[in-house]
Amino acid sequence: MQPSKLVFLDQLREEQYGRIMCYPRYDLRELKRRIGELKKLGVKAVEFVGGKNVFNAQVLGKGCVGIVVVALTDRGKLALKVRRVDANRAGMQHEAEMLKKANAVGVGPRLLDTTENFLLMEFVEGTLLPQWVEMLKGKGTLSRIRRVLQEVLEQCWRLDESGLDHGELSRAPKHVIVDSEDSPWLVDFETASFHRRVSNVTSICQYLFIGSQTAKTIKRKFGKINREKLIKALRTYKQQRTRENFEKVLRVCGLHNV
After folding, report:
1. Beta strands 61-62 and 5-8, pairing class
2. Could you tell me which residues come within 8 angstroms of residue 93 by beta carbon, excluding any fewer than 6 positions away?
3. In angstroms, what CA-CA distances link 129 with 31, 228, 252?
4. Are 19 and 80 in contact, with CB atoms under 8 Å apart?
5. Domain residues of the chain, as ranges?
6. Of 67, 98, 70, 61, nearest to 85 (Cα)?
7. What is the pTM of this model?
8. What is the pLDDT of residue 99?
9. For the domain 5-122, what is the CATH superfamily, name and number?
10. Residue 40: alpha-carbon gap to chain centroid
11. Residue 44 — φ and ψ, nearest 5°?
């Protein structure tokens, strides 16, 4: 992994960095406009660090809508999502609104500010859930996994109750981060919606316990979940989304009263 690179705003005009801030096509006029937006957000510098590589620079994340980097501001180190110039949306307002709604029920990194091309939010430093589970070993592993999984499901329950569907939790290797205090965070609300039936609890259970490589890892570390009972409990919950039926799902997963 390359060392992190701190780049101040005037340096972003250089093509090697401008190509990232205007990913995937460098455009000087667009770049100047975006640098103006960064100044309004109070961004002093961008730190290229993380597990993804874009044009030989490290970033926190890369998706269909944007690139995520570290931003240094007067408020400290924050996460900055940069809209791709080829994104299938004109701005970041939708995602900002979805994250704001998630924040209202205690889910997701805190939204701090937004412009047409940028989303500024709390920086969550941690490990993606699949890697976190994989690296756990020794005494306390089981109880740590149970606490994290229960909190993930509780957050999904709160999203269901709010009517906000995340939209990506049935395949979530990049959407759950566990920080140094074993607190899980649901991230990336770019495809979230209030206009479809919520399926956060059912989707995350599918991912964690039934149909993914991560489910196999959790089974090895946490123990086997009765698949038939879980599917039945999820079906009941889907038909009648009550707290009682949600707690039945928790019990089948061995996560009740953790």
Report:
1. unpaired
2. 114, 116
3. 34, 25, 21
4. no
5. 5-122, 126-252
6. 67
7. 0.94
8. 98
9. Phosphorylase Kinase; domain 1 (3.30.200.20)
10. 25
11. -95, -35
In Å, what is the CA distance from 115 to each residue of 5, 38, 41, 80, 181? 24, 9, 8, 11, 31
- Using alpha carbons, list the distances in angstroms from residue 87 to 90, 92, 100, 171, 174: 7, 10, 21, 21, 19
Alpha helix (H) residue ranges in the chain: 15-21, 28-41, 93-104, 129-135, 141-162, 200-205, 213-222, 227-239, 243-252
Mean pLDDT per 10-residue segment, the chain (258 residues): 83 93 94 97 96 92 94 96 94 96 98 98 96 92 96 98 97 94 97 96 97 92 93 98 98 85
Strand (E) positions, 49-138? 52-54, 57-59, 61-62, 66-73, 76-83, 111-114, 118-122, 126-128
Which of 84, 66, 86, 256 has the alpha carbon at shortest distance from 174? 66
SS3 label, residue 220: helix
What's the pLDDT at 50? 92
Fold (CATH) for 126-252: Transferase(Phosphotransferase); domain 1 (1.10.510)
C-alpha closest to that of 43 among 53, 54, 52, 34: 34
Report the b/e string of 180-215 with b at 16+ CB within 10 A: eeeebbbbbbbebeeeeebbbbbbbbbbbbeebebb
Please name the residues in contact with 228: beta carbons below 8 A apart, sequence gap of 6 or more: none
Q: Report whether 109 contacts 115 (CB < 8 A).
A: no
- What's the one-letter identity of residue 173? P
What is the per-residue pLDDT for 2? Answer: 62
Structural tokens at position 194: 């209030």
Return the pLDDT at 197.
Answer: 96
